[in-house]
Design goal:
about 110 residues, mainly alpha, 5 helices, about 0% strand, transmembrane, transmembrane helix
């Protein structure tokens, strides 16, 4: 269950960080808007994703697992932004919500 939490939060964080770029904003929304809230939110979600990893697996293994899940989150959002960017509108918030709910249930 903790792996799902970390992966979902990592995916949502990487989506927020990628959507802070003007190019990706235009791909997904068709227009650009201020990027700072998304950038800060993405970095905050990255930090939040570290907490359940360290809590579940300890400090050394938790940080290593977190880095691995960040890689998979970045891969997922990278593939989605390449082949189907529009659904990021709902998959990124769904990932954050799924991670938060799974974390509360765990």
């Amino acid at each position: 269950m903790n792996a799902l939490v970390v992966l979902a939060l990592s995916y949502a964080a990487m989506a927020a960080v990628s959507l802070s770029m003007e190019r990706h904003q235009e791909q997904v929304y068709g227009k650009a808007f201020p990027a700072m809230p998304l950038r800060l939110g993405g970095w905050a979600l990255l930090a939040v994703a570290l907490v359940p990893a360290v809590a579940a697996w300890g400090t050394s293994v938790g940080i290593l697992a977190w880095l691995g899940f960040l890689t998979f989150g970045a891969l997922g959002i990278g593939l989605q932004m390449t082949y189907a960017p529009r659904p990021v509108r709902w998959t990124a918030p769904a990932g954050a919500l799924l991670g938060a709910v799974a974390w509360l249930l765990a």
